[in-house]
Fold GTPase.
Amino acid sequence: MKITRRLRWLLAGGILLMTLLFLLFLFFATKNFLDLWDRLLLLPHWLFYSYSTVIVAVMGFSGWLIVKLVSGGRSPTTLKRPIPKPVTEASLTQDIAQIKAAGMDTAPLEIEIAELNERRTAGNAHIAFFGDISTGKSSIIKALLPEAGVEINLRGGSTREIREYTWQTLAGDHLLLTDLPGRNEAEGTLDAAARDEAIRAHIVVYVTDSDLSRTQFQDLQELAAFGKPLLIAINKRDQYTAAEQVQLATRIRNRFDSAQRTGTNERSASGVLPPEVLFIQSGGTEEIVRVYPDGREETIQRPRKTDISALATHLQTEIDQRLESLTQQRDTSVLNLVQEKLDTTREDYRRTQAEKIVRSSTHKAILGALASVSPGTDLVIQGVIGTRMVQELCKLYDSPVSQLDIDQFLNFTQGKLGKSIPLLLAVAGNGLKAFPGVGTVAGGLVHAVAYGLIFDALGKSVAHTLEQRGALNAAPAAATFQEMLSGNLEERTKTFARLVIEQYRGK
């Protein structure tokens, strides 16, 4: 207790001393400033303003320098985030022509654009039906189109592929109805195809026969994020009383509101309005047990009453009031879909070509190393091959690069490589021992395996950095190089040892 009290008195005395010192400094600084100000006022006007301008300029330059130093701590990738340009059909057509000229497969992209133009010409409203198996999608379409001959499989999963039907409403509008495979259907189309169909549609209808499961709710959040009108059609209406229907619809809307407020899904928190909830009866059959007076029981099937008027009326209202805006949304969504597929095509092509460039350069480095005495820790011996590889990779990723950038990157890798050379040589030597007859050959073979490891990691680190950052940033690329150089070293050594032996025997 005494020690604690003594510390408190020491802290109190220190605070008092610091306060007195600060006040003393403040008094002296104020006195000096006022003296300086009085002297400045005695100067001629031109000298007063000149002196004041110099002071302001010095303070402004200091502030600018501080801002530059502080902002310079951020990574270059966060400083230059280009604002994405809106996707247009003209820009897409130009991009498709460019990647086609580069040798990429653009057929799926061209087909998507052609189908969009066909649907524009036809002028039909496109309605996509989603839902798990056995929830009534096919039954609803059959109720809308009794002449379409949709087969209903009572065991579930009647939709095995994407099917399209045209429905003419009572008002004379033509609607394109798309029946999509159930999400959990083992033999159905992949979810990616169903997702693309939602993007192509004007309106999305999600069919269920009960409250939403967690998986169904996740699907609905993703569908809602496309910005299309989303209807939830709850089938088997006769299983719910009027009060239960209101309660169920309210609970579903509240789940969407809660998800958007809390941001549980990045795509759901986009301000999309909660979906409309409708209750329908798609027909079909139901099993009942008939009990006779003598106690006998008989299970029979009888048809359910069909009533999809709520869905048909809502669809007609949407078409009458919002068809033009829905068409614009549909066109924008499809163009964004094409852009997404175009980017994926370009990324896949670049990865494939990057692998070829790295493989070819590594092969050249191995051939060069077979004649060398020792692997150069600064890549001087293989400098031309390394520089050429980096240039080709940067060209592939449309990233301008100067010789200074390449030299800086190679200098960084030199520092990372220096401590790894003895380990690489040792591992390469052990790897060659696995091949009888050549395992004891020293010199060129060991060095060639080491160079294979070096150039493979070097090229892959450059490609990885260009793909992730869009530019050859020397420091991150060198760090990635170090990681790749030591990763899975044993397996990679065997691979390059086998390649070196083949080259050595083929001389």
